Amino acid sequence: MRLNLSSTRFLSLYSGKITDIHAHIYPKNYLKELEKRTAYPVFRANPNGTSFIQFSDSSRSFPVTDSFYDLDYRIKEMGKFKITTELLSAINPWTDSFPSPELAVRFSRLINDEISTIVSQYKNERRFQGLATLPLLSPVDAAKELERAIDELGLVGAIIGTNVNGTYLSDERFLGIFEVAQRKRCLLFIHPSIPIGTDKLRDYGLVRSLGYVFDSTVNLVKMAYAGVFDKFPELKLISAHLSGALPYLQGRIDVAWKMFPESKGNLSEPPSNKIRKVLHADTISYSKGALRLASDLIGVERLMFGTDFPFEWGTENARKSVEEAFSDDELRLIYSENFDRVIKF
Ligand SMILES: [Zn+2]
What we know:
It contains 14 helices and 13 strands. By secondary structure, the protein is an alpha/beta fold. Residues 1-9 have low confidence and may be disordered. The structure holds zinc ion. Zinc ion is lined by residues 22, 24, 191, 240, 308.
């Protein structure tokens, strides 16, 4: 299927169910609580449309518009692009920038309770599913919160950053979270946090276009070398943005493992073999070639449609690129069936 058509024609071509697994939200109560704070992170609501959130005195402020928290607006946008279900997750850096683990726990619970309420509120029409935010400043509490989110809140997993204030998920402090995730058979959506090396990428918006995807790539490879996927071979990971640059760099990563002693680590097989056993990826890439490559290397049955709503990458761009890259049968898998299958088993 090759499309380069006007949006009206384009949007009429696929009429099946579409689940957006990469859709963000700032829950309203969370923003209200952030508004009361006098130290970072803070939210400042301004009536003239310049509301913003800021995480630290060295970070820039991020504009927050209705699209981040208003459910009516969100549902209208979903209708416009024929998205039937969204998998809701909070926005990076989640609760990692709070000054204490206790606050991270408190605010994570607040976010999770509200996402759970939203999922329940629209349960009959199956409009939303939800992912928990974990208080990663305290991995023990994060593991407990993941259990609570699955057992008590009806969420289907958690969103988890590629690094926590500079420490990749390969660090052994996070193993308890993976143990819970495997035992509960829930999803872990690995999403870029503030990328390591951000200071060198501030110009031209390179954090967004390059930093995020390379942080995803480095993190996955480090997790493989650390043996996380040997310890927990039944994890259900979804890596954001087509798993970063992994499909493109897989050959180089594996040949390095084969040829150079320092790249061998403790692995008995190439890093990408380990990663592929647990990996799913969303389709946010906007490139037909990259999507086909990921489909060859990760498997079309492991790709799931995403948009990064409400960030302005464009739901139409996201849909167009997958519909240019995949057949109708493949689209059905990517648009809904892969996600439905993975959350069930
Ligand atoms: Zn995102």
